[in-house]
Amino acid sequence: MEPFLLKNILIINPFGIGDVLFTTPLVRALKEGALPAPRITFICNARTAPILVHNKHVDDIIVFDRGQYRELWRKSKWEWIHAFAAILRKVRKNGFDAVFDISLGRQYSFFLALCGVPVRAGFDYKGRGIFLTHKIPVKAFTGKPVAEYYLDLARLAGVEPGGKDIEFPIVDKDEQEVNGFLRSEGVEFGREFLCVVPGGGGSWGSDAGYKRWPVGGFSLVADELAGMYRLAPVIVGSRQESDICEEVRRSMTHKAIVFTELSLGACAALFKRAKLVVCNDGGPLHIAVSQGVKTISVFGPVDENVYGPFPPSGDHIVLKSKISCRPCYVNFRYTRCGHRSCLTAITAQEVLEAAKTLLGTPDIL
Questions:
Q1: In CATH, what number does 172-359 get?
Q2: How far is Cα 146 from Cα 142, in angstroms, rounded to an integer?
Q3: Are 80 and 99 in contact (CB under 8 A)?
Q4: Which CATH architecture has domain 8-156?
Q5: Containing H/E element for 120?
Q6: Nearest Cα to Cα of residue 191 among 227, 225, 231, 221
């Protein structure tokens, strides 16, 4: 298949935080690899838009929240038509000559065909690529990192990717928000701290518990590392995870602070300053990786070779059990086993040993 001309590009990724971060190497590859450098617009949801706002390779962002549009449809069909038509007019007005559709569905490419976008590249999953002009057949993402699949779309366009780091640029406002938070919680300037993220599976909704290591493990690890390395423990989560974060804090003997109200950019800035981030598989892990901080992540049903830290590095240790039924997240579905043995089999001691590998032997030992 012949490479296609890239001047004015639209990229669509309606998924969660980690997935949009996995798209950033593709964005950079297209911006730097195509000559002349194309204009790039990105369609994403409101929750992930902060990842892209300060990305120098993204020229414009169109926020499209499928959940909000479904709610609008239930409220008023006329208002939905009006709002959706406004999005289509904006797309048509931009005059895109190519779209990279990472939605794995058929709806986006169908409407973009109606809008006259001539080149529509993406993944043909379960025959849903019927409206794509350039497609890569996939049954699932397996055997290599998701970000590499996305980079294959750059290769489809005749662009060979350069660097592969995921990107989440932060700005002074994010740093100031973190500074204000730490001061308000009594963390002395210059004090080193540890971030513990006991939640992090927001994109799984009500099933997020299937990706979470037990809360008791996080509290034990936070306590031990706070004592061993003299680190101030900071427990991080979304507003919806405040109960989990408070449960970790209450179970600790060292004083810990809970952080569930900061913006996404401030969360990235906090991770950047941390000595270590201990977390589950999920968006916070990939935010931490984007900031170059050392991480220890616990993986249960999800394949770390596909959805783990990218690019892989010695600064990121993934802990997973050897239970025969994992990973059970296959073809974008997982087994609701109920026992979560893949997570409960991982001990706090394993996490602590991983921490010693990354941070070295503590002085007090």
A1: 3.40.50.2000
A2: 8
A3: no
A4: 3-Layer(aba) Sandwich (3.40)
A5: strand 119-125
A6: 231
